[in-house]
Amino acid sequence: MNRSFLIAQISDLHLKAAQRLSYGVVDTLGALRRAVDHLNALQPRPDIVLVSGDLVDFGRPDEYAVLHPELARLHMSCYLVPGNHDHREHLLAAFADHTYLPRSAGEPLDWVVEEHPLRLIGLDTTIPGAHGGQLLDSQLRWLDEQLACRPDAPTLLILHHPPFTSGIGHMDREPFINAAALERLIGRHPQVERLLCGHLHRPMQRRFGASLICVCPGTSHQIVLDLQPTAPAHFNLEPPGYLLHHWHEQALVTHNAVFGEYPGPYPFYDAHGLID
User: Fold this and answer.
1) I need a labelling partner for 115 at 20 to 30 A (CA). Which of 17, 165, 206, 232 fits?
2) Ranges for the Calcineurin-like phosphoesterase domain (predicted)?
3) What are phi and psi for residue 108, nearest 5 degrees?
């Protein structure tokens, strides 16, 4: 399929129940509602939305009960992967209507969706009770098999933890387990257009195998950009953001975008040419 296809990626929603503020500061529910309204109003409207983990803050059923109707307001299909703040069983119970998700309790929530111009593979990189990420050897074998069976299908991998060192001290203290093995695997499968990640609450890019990793900013709060090894675990309220991945003419272009209203747009030109 050669038609244009637009994918919005949001990440790190950290939704709470009972209208509580994350860390006593961040209105994550209000931020998500603004994000959903923004995506629904975009022209052209995204065909699908990918949510790359940390859907809620503590993985509790009451948090997922708040999240489900908010995501249901999207005017397009959305696909979820868990992050380190999520709980697999509680996520599955709340999103039983998301039929692409596997039903095996206790197993990684890996999935494949084949119905779009790009093939989507979701990978569960969570380690229950831990901050860092991993892919088990069994998951790597499964991924290798999935990619080998459709070598000509342009593919996106969606996972929460970026498999690289960011340079932000406190985010790197628990490195991604099996990152080198994953990079070797990706190097064998050039149809992987992107690895789409969250977790770091900042836009970042890195070459990886034969592909490119794109990290999505958060829908509410961002990690402070501090590249010192001793960087403390701090966040700020920089503008919330998302990524737009535009598949067109058999190529994928990724745009970094922000939520919110800002002055403009203003013209570059008037009747006399470039405005002086």
Assistant:
1) 206
2) 7-203
3) -55, 140
Residue 63: what residue type?
A: E
State the pLDDT confidence band at 59, using cuts at 50, 70 and 90.
very high
Confidence of residue 2 (pLDDT cuts 50, 70, 90): low
Which residues is 134 bridged to in the sheet?
177
Termini Cα distance of the chain: 46
Number of domains the chain is built from: 1
**CA–CA distances in Å: residue 58 to residues 54, 160, 167, 221, 240:** 9, 16, 26, 16, 21
Residue type, 260: G
CATH (domain of 192): 3.60.21.10
Tokens of 269: 């030109």
The pLDDT > 70 percentage for the chain reads 99
Q: What is the pLDDT of residues 217-265, one digit of tens each?
A: 999 999 999 998 888 999 999 999 999 999 999 999 999 999 999 999 9
pLDDT of amino acid 231: 86
Considering the chain, what is the average pLDDT of its residues? 96
Q: Is the pLDDT of residue 105 over 80?
A: no
CA 265 centroid distance within chain: 28
**Hey, how many other C-beta atoms are within 10 angstroms of the C-beta on 223?**
22
Contact between 137 and 108 (Cβ < 8 Å): no
| Domain of residue 80, residue span | 5-274
